[in-house]
Amino acid sequence: MAIRRVLILSASFGEGHRQASRAIKEELLQAYPDATAEIVDYIQSISPTWNKFAQFFYIQGIKRAPLLYGFFYKQFNRIPSDSTLSRSMSKISLIIGGNLFLEYLNTFKPDVVIHTFPSSASAHDTLLREGKTRVPSITVITDYAAHRQWIHSETSLYFVGAPKVADELIQEGVPQEKIRVTGIPVRQNFKQSYNREALLKKHGLDAERPTVLLLAGAFGVSERIRELMAFLLDYPLPLQVLIVTGRNRRLYEVMREQVESHQAAGFEGSFHRVKVYGFVDYIAELMAVSDLVFTKSGGLTTSEAVAMGVPMILFKPIPGQEKANADFLSDAGVAFVTQTMEEMVRLFDRWMHDAHLRQQTRANFVRLRRSMYQTTITKELEQFLKSTRLKTLDRS
């Protein structure tokens, strides 16, 4: 059954939700070039003021009070999804946005709405329960944990990243027939094969040196990133370090200054080959030439690394979904979690010297990906829309 019109509702709370939305759109349009798939920032669309306010407190909470953020994450996860409090919370965004969501559904007329952010799924659930729309609601969970704020009785399908998340949804009472294990969606360039030798030449890199990718933009300008950089620059064996700061211009300057100061001082580690990048649209290529990546444990970035088969070191995961992601990937044997620089030093040194560990980690990716990529969003959406249209015909 052809996919025609799909509305994807996301949010700008971190880059992960938006990247997942773009990956879904890319996958759908690759299969159905004539389809219309529109991505809308849900919170921004209903209230730009509320979006700025909520983003500010989200970012500040993670940066300045991660333990408090983790506390609220746990507390909200204790609220049953079918409770009066949870359903009252579902109406908040509708109240803030008035009838904008419903008006947009009536104007765009999508076959289905896909949610990569829990608030829009919650609002959609309210509209369905109140009989104000019949447009099906589908949720894509963008972390490796089934937080209760993702769960709603009127959701037709859940696309999840791993069997573990499916099991957690079932434990919360979600019928198994509503759950599909697709992996967290990543863009197509993270799924393709690359010629590593050609990429090394393209980016002016040395094939003989171990290559470490540091996704610094995820950390921001912080003491943690300075510690990480100092550690890598001081490492006694020759490395090739690729640092990506994203759109954070201040971080780019800080990293460049730290590298240049270290090299000018003539420290032992100044023989490393170090490249500092700002925002680039070829992260997949940098992952393809990397032997190891340092990053935060966000659902999307780690899923990109899983798709590329690049082992990860996750430094000081923030309590909440980051810790849940880190625990899952660590248990799968494809990532290593460190809380202190002392742990980091020991782990990295072991990684550099233990060929068996490196080989075993690579093998773990094969098992993990086999369990995660059981089907695709496009295939399941086709089947869902086909069954939905048949039911509609039977009723008419």
UniProtKB/TrEMBL annotation:
Domain Diacylglycerol glucosyltransferase N-terminal: 17-186
GO molecular function: hexosyltransferase activity
Main location as per UniProt: membrane
Start and end residues of each Glycosyl transferase family 28 C-terminal domain: 238-342
UniProt xrefs under Pfam families: Glyco_tran_28_C, MGDG_synth
Swiss-Prot/TrEMBL GO biological process terms: glycolipid biosynthetic process
Keywords in alphabetical order: Glycosyltransferase, Transferase
SUPFAM superfamilies listed in its UniProt record: UDP-Glycosyltransferase/glycogen phosphorylase
Subcellular location: Membrane
InterPro entries: Diacylglyc_glucosyltr_N, Glyco_trans_28_C, Glycosyltransf_28_UgtP
GO cellular-component term (any): membrane
Entry keyword annotation includes Heme: no
Family: Belongs to the glycosyltransferase 28 family.
Name of the molecule in the record: Diglucosyldiacylglycerol synthase (LTA membrane anchor synthesis)
Lineage, opening ranks: Bacteria, Bacillati, Bacillota, Bacilli, Bacillales
